[in-house]
Amino acid sequence: MHQNRHRTFLNARCPSRHEYKPAKTKFEKLGARATIRPVVRNRWRPASGPVVIDIGHDRHGEFFDIQVDGDVDVEVLDLQPRDRHLLLMVRQPAERAGQPDTKDKFLCGHDERHWFVAGVPERAPVSSVVTAREALKPDAVRSRERGRRGKRAKRLRRKTDVFVRQGEWFFIAVPNLRVNEKMIFTSEPISRGRGKPHMCQQLYREGGTTVYVCGQRPNGLTADQYRQLLKANPSAAKWNWRTMARDPVVYVRGRVWHPDHATIRLDVWHRV
Prior knowledge:
Helices cover about 10% and strands about 40% of the residues.
């Protein structure tokens, strides 16, 4: 979800000063600031839906910028001040009588150096910060944790006997992996779109779809899309393209670094 800095309010009921005070007070208990205001809609950067949540920045630092339509309710379901996390629910009334309301849930918190917000998968039965953090784990991680003994809180650490975590990425050790040494990439990025990539000292991948990536096309183009673009715009060939793979099986080894997170070091190959 992207922050929208324009201030032209259209088709939104302006909330009263006290309407969202309970939610804002709970953000303050985390040591965070939050603004809750009508969703911004304009032709340059249209809102993706009735809710837009982002981390904003001003002269006082970071804050949660929450934009909602007038009929949307914002409620904090669970608050964990010690861990600096809370579970936020945004309820949108049903369009027709007799239909259920739409309930979107977001995990808001602090991870290492910065505040973050993450949408919780709709399929997950989530009612607390702990269950939200569990729901955000990849299926491969949960399957390896299934049946293991021990407190659930230990499974939420950045390093466990199953995985090492850096931000949204989880790394699972595969110590006996055999790789083609000629196919190892060095200083290779991994990313999920426009965010700052995590850099890997050594990376090996299998399968996936070859895509062409550059600053103007950060999500990548398939080979057919790339050829069509060059045919329509020959000057695009000078856009500093890089060949990458979309949705491959990826393994990394060595250092993994990112400006928002502490560097981790993986002595053996780990699946990403």
